[in-house]
Design goal:
Elements lengths: L1 H7 L12 E7 L4 E5 L12 H11 L7 E8 L9 H10 L5 E5 L5 E5 H4 L11
Parallel strand pairs: 3-4
Antiparallel strand pairs: 1-2, 1-3, 4-5
């Protein structure tokens, strides 16, 4: 997984930030989907690597509860966590005990549960 995440940094489209990020989501059935961050001049129209990987899984037919873990790697050499927009998507689709593993390019990582990263999730019940 680490080598694939590292390799994917070159696929990021980051002409503004020059900050490549790669991610994967592992499904409960063992399938894996990858994503990279993609940005554009308006910046808001781009997407993060985490959501890109999640959207690929959704496009393939997976849904809430099918996700097992998220893996994220920054090309900067630092360990970083998903942004709050990605955390929102993760909290809606992943069970609270699922793992979010955040890597640096050297293979070091920190591991969190979804509940640890999203202790106060906003969900469907909040819209009623």
């Amino acid at each position: 997984m680490i080598d694939e995440l590292r390799r994917l940094h070159s696929n990021s489209y980051v002409p503004i930030s020059h900050f490549p990020v790669s991610a994967s989501v592992v499904m409960k059935d063992g399938n894996v989907f990858f994503g990279v961050n993609v940005e554009d001049a308006s910046t808001r129209a781009g997407t993060c690597a985490e959501r890109n990987a999640i959207y690929s899984a959704i496009t393939a037919g997976y849904t809430r509860g099918d996700f097992l873990e998220v893996n994220v790697m920054l090309a900067s050499g630092e360990i970083g966590t998903p942004c709050f927009v990605c955390r929102q998507m993760i909290s809606e689709l992943f069970d609270k005990e699922c793992i979010v593993r955040c890597y640096d390019i050297y293979g070091n990582f920190r591991e969190y549960t979804v509940e640890e990263l999203c202790p106060f999730p906003f969900g469907e019940d909040d819209l009623k």
